[in-house]
Structure formats: C-alpha cells, structure tokens
C-alpha cells in the first residue's frame, strides 16, 4: 500500500455539533483502508477467503460480481486466487469517489482476469451469467425493504451451482447477547486506537443508514429465495460472512 492509502482515520476525532449521516464521500474514501481494518474484526481474513471461495466456485466462461466494491479489496482477492478459464469481474459501487480510487488500485495489480469498475446502483444492476456474487458489507447499507429484491435479482442471475458470498454486521436477536458483542466490538476499536468520542460519533453517524438484521433472518431469507445450502463460514463478534449456493439443475 502507498502512504496515501494508510492515511489515519480521524473523521470523528473532534466533537461535532451535529453528526451527519455516514456516507462514502471523499473524506471516507481517503481513510477507508485504515477505517475498515480498525473497525471490522476479521476483515483481512474475510477478504482473503473470498478469493479462495472464488477459486472453488468460479465457473469457466462466467462473470464474478463485486457489488458495493468500495476500493476493490474483494476483486483483488479474486484476481489473486481464481483459476477458472475466461472469467471476468464486474465491480459496482454507487460512490464516484470510491470508483475512481478503486480503478487505480485494480490497475496497479497485474492479472489475466479482466475487471470493469462502474459507478452504478446495485438495485439497478442486472446480474447475468454469474458464478460468484460478492456482497461484502454492502447489503446493510441498502434500505431493508429493498434487500429482498436485490437478493432475488442475484439468485436469478446466478448460474446453477453459483454462489453468493454475503458479509454483514449482524444482530443476534437477543438483547443480552447483542450487548455483549457490541461491547467486544467497541473494545476492539479502543485497542485499535479509537477514542470513546470517535466510537460514539461513528455510531451516531451510522444509526440511520445501517439497519442490521439477525443472522438467522439472513440465512432463512436466503433459503426462502431458493438457495439450497446456506452457512456461516466466518464470524467474529457481530460480523459474519455467509455462503449461499444455488442448486444444480436436474
């Protein structure tokens, strides 16, 4: 990484009279690598294994979608590990600032797997001939009433045997357990150098734009849509990554 990508996240380090809703603007993009590593436990493990899952499930002559690609970490992991023939990556994000920086990151990594980065709305993205679709901490920023539509669109566009990799911050549906995991997450952030002010203001910024759902709710919804196999392959505190497999046609 360059020195620029390691710029320290100080966005919430000073008291703000009114904390605005969180958005992926230029300020966030500038510190995003530092922010995500210090805020999401297990993030590097998740990203690395997304590439390994793509190695297992990517099908020849298909497309891999990275929806809500941010700076392209998942796409880079796929390009590092995937071995299927004649595959391509379609990376989508609705933030112009993210897309611009993502293109630079991906261009710096040489690979035989072509990638196209586009600024677009995930809700309006048609999924076609997909063997792997990645939603890495993306669905949580989509309005809850629109999530079913997004997932059904993905399911329709997946080839038989294709997979959805879905990473989310989740709730457990139990107040005591949730409170315990929230406190563990806050301690994780403290140990990574965030102050109580930063933790509090970031939480306020996110409360209106990131609506959490429980892990059982996620898995049940995926099954109702049609995925025959669903599992949680990673969890640390209240951060989880799921794998959902579309059945093979008879």
TrEMBL record:
Enzyme Commission (EC) number: 2.1.3.-
Record flagged with keyword Transferase: yes
Residue span, Methyltransferase domain: 64-162
Main enzyme class: transferase
Keywords, ordered alphabetically: S-adenosyl-L-methionine, Transferase
Subunit structure: Homodimer.
UniProt protein name: Carboxy-S-adenosyl-L-methionine synthase
Organism: Planctobacterium marinum
Gene name of this polypeptide: cmoA
């Amino acid at each position: 990484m360059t020195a620029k990508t390691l710029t320290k996240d100080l966005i919430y380090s000073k008291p703000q009279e009114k904390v605005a809703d969180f958005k992926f603007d230029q300020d966030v993009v500038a510190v995003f690598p530092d922010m995500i590593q210090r805020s999401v436990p297990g993030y590097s493990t998740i990203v690395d294994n997304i590439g390994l899952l793509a190695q297992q499930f990517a099908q020849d002559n298909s497309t891999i979608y990275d929806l809500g690609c941010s700076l392209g970490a998942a796409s880079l992991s796929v390009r590092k590990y995937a071995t299927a023939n004649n595959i391509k990556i379609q990376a989508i994000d609705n933030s112009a600032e993210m897309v611009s920086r993502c293109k630079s990151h991906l261009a710096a990594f040489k690979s035989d797997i072509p990638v196209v980065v586009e600024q677009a709305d995930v809700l309006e993205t048609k999924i076609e001939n997909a063997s792997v679709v990645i939603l890495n901490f993306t669905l949580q920023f989509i309005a809850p009433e629109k999530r079913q539509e997004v997932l059904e669109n993905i399911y329709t566009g997946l080839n038989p045997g294709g997979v959805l990799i879905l990473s989310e911050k989740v709730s457990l549906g139990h107040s005591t357990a949730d409170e315990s995991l929230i406190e563990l997450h806050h301690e994780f952030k403290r140990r990574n150098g965030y102050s109580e002010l930063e933790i509090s203001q970031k939480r306020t910024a996110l409360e209106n734009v990131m609506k959490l759902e429980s892990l059982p709710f996620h898995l049940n919804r995926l099954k109702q849509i049609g995925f025959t196999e669903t599992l949680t392959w990673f969890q640390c505190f209240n951060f989880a990554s799921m794998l959902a497999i579309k059945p093979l046609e008879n």
